[in-house]
Structure formats: C-alpha cells, structure tokens
Amino acid sequence: MRTAICDMLGIDLPLLAFSHCRDVVAAVTNAGGFGVLGASSHSPEQLERELAWIDERVGGKPYGVDILVPEKYEGQGEKLNLDDLATRIPEEHRAFVDRLLREHGVDTTDSASWAGLGLELTDDIGERLLDVVFDHPVGLVANALGVPPPHMIDRAREAGVPVAALVGAKEHALKQVEAGVDILVAQGTEAGGHCGEVTTMVLVPEVIEAVKPVREVPVLAAGGIVTGRQMAAAIALGAAGAWTGSVWLTTEEAETAPHTTRKMVAATSRDTVRSRGRTGKPSRQLTSAWTEAWDRPDSPDALPLPLQTLVSEPALRHLDTLAERGDPGAQDLATYWVGQGVGLMNRVRPAREVVYEFAEDFAEATERLNDSLGE
Amino acid sequence: MRTAICDMLGIDLPLLAFSHCRDVVAAVTNAGGFGVLGASSHSPEQLERELAWIDERVGGKPYGVDILVPEKYEGQGEKLNLDDLATRIPEEHRAFVDRLLREHGVDTTDSASWAGLGLELTDDIGERLLDVVFDHPVGLVANALGVPPPHMIDRAREAGVPVAALVGAKEHALKQVEAGVDILVAQGTEAGGHCGEVTTMVLVPEVIEAVKPVREVPVLAAGGIVTGRQMAAAIALGAAGAWTGSVWLTTEEAETAPHTTRKMVAATSRDTVRSRGRTGKPSRQLTSAWTEAWDRPDSPDALPLPLQTLVSEPALRHLDTLAERGDPGAQDLATYWVGQGVGLMNRVRPAREVVYEFAEDFAEATERLNDSLGE
C-alpha cells in the first residue's frame, strides 16, 4: 500500500500499533505494520533493555516509541520525590479508596504503597529517555500527552526521526503543528486511555481541514479502530493511516492479565467509560465498580496529574494481583484502559494474524466502495 | 451509485436527509438524495399539509417521513391532556427555569406556557399519523425513538413501505430486527438529538455484525456525517449509506432561526453537549448557558419523557423569540439540537449544493482508497 505515512515510515501497511508490550511491537513490525512501544512509565534503564530486545528481533524493520513528557505536572521543577508528592494526597482520597476496597471485601493490608510503581518525575527524565531513544534505530518518537518540548523536537530533527503527537481537538492540532510536529494522531473520544470529547468520525476531517493551510502534515486516525474496514474508513476521511492500541490487548503476545482479557472479550462497546478517576485527566477504560464509585456525584473530585495516579495505581495493581487469584471483589473493581472498539474484540489471536486481517478487511472495504460507485 | 439502500429506496445516492423543514426534504429528493420529513411533533392535519406540499414538488421522486411513537411515556393510557400532565412538574423545576432566565436578564412574563407546543399525547396519535402517511406516496417510514409497535409494522408492510428505526446500541438493533424493521439506522453518540454513548466508527460495524446472523437488513450510518468523505467512511464500515440531519440545518432552505445558524456556523465540534436537560433522555445540542445550568451537579434531575419537554420547550421557544430580537441573555441561553459535525459546517449553502458536494467528495474519497492500494 502507499500513503504519505507508508512513504515517511517505510512501511507496507499504514497500521501503527501502540503497545506497552515489546512482543506486540516486534510482531506487528515483522508482519508489515509499525509497532510503537508505549514507554511512558519506563525508566531509562528499562527502556534501553526493551529497545535492545526489539532491535534483536525486527532485523532493521521500522518501529517507534511513545514517551510521556507532560507539559506541566504537580510538583514540576520542585525536584520532589514520590514520597514528598504523596503527602499532597488529601486524607479524603485515601479514605475513599480504603473504604471502596473494604466494601468489596478486598484485603487492603498492602494496597496503599506507590513504591515500585516505576514512576520517576525528575525534570531530566524526558532528556534521559530521549538519550536512550536516539541510541536505537527508532523510526518515530511520539509524545503521548501535550506538546513536545522544543529540545525533543530539535533532537529528533537532528536524528532524522519524525515526531508524532496525539491530539483530541483541532485547537491542539494547530498548537502541535506550530511546535514542529511531523505526524498528527487525531484521536477520537472512543479511544482507550486519555481522550477528548470529539469522535473519530468528526475529529479526523476537522483536524485535516484545520492544519492544511498551516503545513502539510500526515494525520493518522485513532480511536475505536480495531478492524481493516475502520482503517479504510479512516483513509476515506483523509487520514494517512490508522493508529491503534486497544486491539493488541487481546492478542496472544500481550501481557494483559488473563482476567482482564476475559472481561475485554466479553465486553460490548458500552462497557467503557471516560473518567478522571484514574489519572486526573479524562481517560477511557473498562467500566467497573472502581470507575462507578469515582464517578458518583458525592465522590471526591479527581486530583491533578500525577497525584490521582498515586491514589489509583497502587490500589489497581493490588486489585489486579488479587483478581488473578480469583478474589471476586477485586474482579468487580479491576479495570484497564481500553476503547469502545472492545465491543469488536471477541477472541484472542496472534498479533500477526490481526495485521493480516487488517490488510484483507481493508481491501474488501475498498472493493465495497468501488462496487457502490458501480465500477 | 448502487448500494442495498439505493435499490430498496430507488435512489441514486445513498444519502438520507432528515429535516423538520419540507423545503429541505423536497430539495434533497429532487437533487438525487432521499429527504425524510421529521414530523414527531406534527398533528395529523399539519402532516397532511406538509406531505401534500412535498408531493406537489418532487414529481414522484422518493421521500420518507419520521414520526415518533414512543414505547412508553409518563401518563400513557391515562388520556391526560397537557394541562393535567403539567401538574406533575415539580415546583423545583419551574423555579429553576424561572431563576435561570432571570439571572440572564430575560423577561419571563410569558415564558411558562406549554399551550401552542403542538404536542398531542392521545393514545391514537400514532394511528392517525400513520393514516396520513400511507395516504401519500412515501418511500420510507421511520420511528425516531424505540421499537415501532406491531400495528405500525403491519400497516407499512401492507402499504409496501419499508420501516426504518434508529438505534444507538447493538442490543437495540437486535430488538428492532426481531420486531420486523426493514432498515436500521445505527446512530453514533456524535449525532444531534437523542443519541447513545457509542460512536459511529464503532457502532456501525458492531450493529452490522450483530444483526447479520439474524436477518439481512441494510444498516445506514448516522452521527457526525456532514460530508461525502464521511459517507464513504460509512460505506467502508459496511453501511448501505448515510442518514444525516445536522448538515441541513445551515442550508438556505432550513427554517433554523438566524441567530442559531450563526452559532452553528461559528461552532467547533466541541461546542455540543449530550444532556438530559431538554427531553429527559440524553440528546446532543449546542452548548449554552441553558445546557450548562442543567448539567451542574446541584441542578434538578431531568424529569421523564415528556415532562422535561414541558419544562424546557416553552422556555426555549420564548428564548428563541427574544434572541431573534437581539436579547443578549436569551442568546446566551438559546440552544438547538445538532451533532458534533457542526464543527465542519462552516457556511450557509443551498441543500442541492450540499447533495452534489456529497457525491463529489464521496468519489474523491473512493479514489483516495484506491490510490492507497496502489491501484
């Protein structure tokens, strides 16, 4: 296939696959797509290990990496460590989580620790991650949230690596283009994880129209895309390809916890919710007793990034561990980021097979359009 | 063009245009699309006049009609009139509206009357509307909300007129197919008016997959579709065509109030909200001081259908009148049902021109897909 993104990234299929799992990244890249390692919570040392592992397996085929350099966060510039930051969590929030877990019969003995989260918030973390990134033959570097800082764009340009950025509104797209980003990912509200309010069907053409007068930038469509017919829809809308995430969570290679995989395979598109309760910014995830509790009118307001993560993440990891052991309360509470496309994810398959099905389904959708024109 | 819906309805372009304005319906039908008159608040006498007017102008070309036969409503079977029903409105709600209007400096002297709304709630209203419908050469009859009652489906079948139904979730689609509906409109959350939570990009393939094993039913995509590239995306997703609404509100033929048209032309896709504050069921509309007030945590809960309409509609009509005279408070409060596609509606055009642009843009989108395959 040939689109602006195929030319820019040197790929056959305009299918980008975001995954926290290196096995998925390598499998997609080896199958003709473009794997993107989600490394926003990796330390530089972890990232080095992951990229070296991928390099060994993809034989020079292109892949990318996604890191999180937030524009601003609570405690930024203050050289706070997590323990200091945690003192800013209101007692109300700690008590809420504690009560919620107890109400579901969950043992809370060791559920309140944020040590071992791997979160590092020093001001030079982005710089150190970029050192690692450009030490490997990566074909794309993405910033998951907000505008990449100028030094990130400068370093990528020196290294000849295109910079991608996710946007959920046309105003954000314009800011990103002005900052010098090379690829825009227009991500609809149906996407898993952090997302805006506008749907993929509207956002993609709106972003394309908005940036066209400024600069020629390929736009990838994201949000809800788990099949080739949806990738075809994205290209019909004017996108250069698709950025996907959720669909890889139920592949054989993914590290998704088995109880989460079961929830996803059983879920319909209405079993997700966009909530602030996990990170402080709206993010889409499986509906569960946890998300329902945070979204009640009388529940505490979500804290700003990254404080809410310090409240939620240790509890959710604890719940995952217990859920895996069969604890019914923990299984009710457990959640995971996933988009509305989960309604179309109905079986576990190898990542390679998903890539091939995207290609086939895309071709069939194109044929459907040609047939409708009577050609 | 040829799709299942073109064959079924005898049209060249698989573009259905829902509008409350007969001029739009006739213009779209005459331009090769398929106009559908939204007549959910028409009396049988009004409907008769509108359909006769359309018949005179379309020269036998096909059009449809959309009427509202709700599955259940407050007061159903009790032969209540609007005055009786209005006694069920809590004082809290009346006071809330009164305070809201005063806070915006709006004269409330005659804003609390529901006489003249044209709402009729007798149990045989659906039957009498159907009498009128089948007395005209309509090519489709739709039920805007809920499952059409068996007598509606039976009468349509006798008349040889296909029945269409709007759905926002695959579970509802299955119910509609079991009830005997001939055409499904899978309407995403980005749609104006009543809508569900799932986006068009996900809902369309999900509904198609769900109904396939039950019966062969053409599925139209709705929600956010205001351009031909989006109609192409819909067909790529497997839909037989597009059901549109919002895009006609800013055409020259539409009866949209000029101050509302100006708001829509200026709006981005983020200037709508899905709220219960207008009818009691979630419906998408322009964000305004009115919608913001109803969606505050301490505001009264929306009342069930049709009570909330009795609260909101007289006030909103009063606001429209004042807004048209330049009242700034009324302009801040005024709202209108429209989808997120409003972000792509940037100028006022004749409806005919919109139809032709859909066809051209569709063809270009198909070419884009063929090019991407290197064909």
Automatic annotation (TrEMBL), chains A, B:
Instruction: State the source organism's domain of life.
Output: Bacteria
Presence of the UniProt keyword Cell inner membrane in the record: no
Which GO terms of the molecular function aspect are on file?
Answer: nitronate monooxygenase activity
Keyword Isomerase attributed: no
Q: Name one Pfam family in it.
A: NMO
Question: Which keywords accompany this UniProt record?
Answer: Flavoprotein, FMN, Monooxygenase, Oxidoreductase
- Listed Gene3D superfamilies: Aldolase class I
Matching entries from SUPFAM superfamilies are given as:
Inosine monophosphate dehydrogenase (IMPDH)
**Name of the featured protein:** Nitronate monooxygenase
